Amino acid sequence: MSPSEFAHLRAQAEHNGLLLYYAGTFNPNVIQAAADTLKCRLASEDGSSSAKRKLFSTFIEMAQNVLHYAAPLPASDAGASQALGEPVAQGAIGVGRIDAPAGAPDAGADQAQARFWIACSNAVRREHVPRLAAKLDAVRAMSHPEIKAAYKAQLHNTDHGASDDISRGAGLGWLTIARDASAPLQYHIATGEDAADTAPHAVFHVKALI
């Protein structure tokens, strides 16, 4: 990467309010370090404590999704993480602020607007794509009261583990993220030529506004 390319990258990061970005291997230590960094960044950011708390919770949920559900690395690429017996997964996660438009009020209706965005991506097995899309479409179709009701119901669902070996929690993680989001979750699954060299995998991207 040339200096001018790096300057462009930095300009894009600033334009999108980027607070934190990580791409690479996910394991518990990496997630903890990234979470600590995010806490430090949020301490100096505007926004209610409630919004920051929801953002941090969503960050943990998304990072855990990558850790537990990303398609595993080939043995030749697993490296030291596999040798240590840790879960081996790769993905990317980013968090940024949403700057209020010029002239927007400082309170009132502005409190209902999203203050942050968070997105992550990881490889998923192609045979899991239809089920993943169905889960997300179902959550996206719910109203906020319906999301809260479904979340409470899933907390008391003790049978999901026996019937769902693809997405543990029977969607509880997605319901948790959707419950804290200020708008329906956005997602994209690249399964064709845009999935690059990840065959037999697709690339899953999801974004939430907090």
TrEMBL record:
It holds the Pfam family DUF6272. This is DUF6272 family protein. It comes from Delftia acidovorans.
